[in-house]
Amino acid sequence: MTALAASLRDSSVVAWRNLVNIKRNPDWLLSGTVQPIMFVLLFAYVFGGSLGGAEYREFLLPGIFVQTVAFNSAFTVIGLANDLQKGIVDRFRSLPMSRLAVLLGRTTSDLAVTVLTVVIMSLCGLIVGWRIRGSVADAALGFFVLLLFSFAMSWVGAFIGLVARSVEVAQSAGLMWLFPVTFISSVFVSAENMPGPLRAFAEWNPITVSADALRELFGNPLRPDGGLPDSWPSQHAVLYSIAVSVLIIAAFVPLAVARYRRVASR
Known about the structure:
The chain is an all-alpha fold and 266 residues long. It is 81% helix and 0% strand. The protein has helices at residues 3-24, 26-51, 53-71, 73-86, 88-93, 99-128, 136-163, 167-176, 178-183, 196-204, 206-218, 232-235, 237-264. Helix 3 packs across helix 11 (206-218). The longest helix is centred in the middle third of the chain and has 30 residues, at 99-128. Its main location: membrane. Belongs to the ABC-2 integral membrane protein family. It is a multi-pass membrane protein. It comes from Saccharopolyspora taberi. The chain crosses the membrane at residues 28-47, 59-82, 103-128, 140-163, 175-191, 237-258.
């Protein structure tokens, strides 16, 4: 068996272990599904009436998708920090398995949870009036872009989880940086209406561009007022979103693996 095949086999075992652990601790899955539903209902009905009604809901849902998969990276942070604190990583280290397997297994299992979250959110979105108005191929590409971005964010979470010194630190560190990044974006409002520095950040923010990529592929409004974005990233949203996700993975996989080796060697 080649080293790659062995690594993939070990990763699948770790991923299955993580999924079984969710079955034993269903509160993890509950928080990953209830929170996005609350966001959808809150912004669709509480704010949607004053911000544009049905058209705003169609603008909103792709942004909520992207925000949710970004926040799901916190599960990777807490999961790895918890395994470190309980000594599970030390047990894995004593086994003849790939160093990458623990991290890839964690990010893969979290991606599986994200798939379930996206399905539930899509059904909730259909209930509140969101529709996919593009072709089947474009819709499939849209969900691929979303899951690729989710996988990239999981690797960011893996690195943070290995850096955190405890589960308590991981809980705050995994979410602290996400709030400004997700809210300074076009998830809820148009980036064009923000003041200068914030607008520049929002326009190049991967959250904004990923949301715009989904809106374009799903055939949803690109802006609440029906206008078109005038920034280069949003005008090339699909390409930019895929490129950024690939770059994040390429950057954080070696960082996370290097950090894992340092932690495991203590």
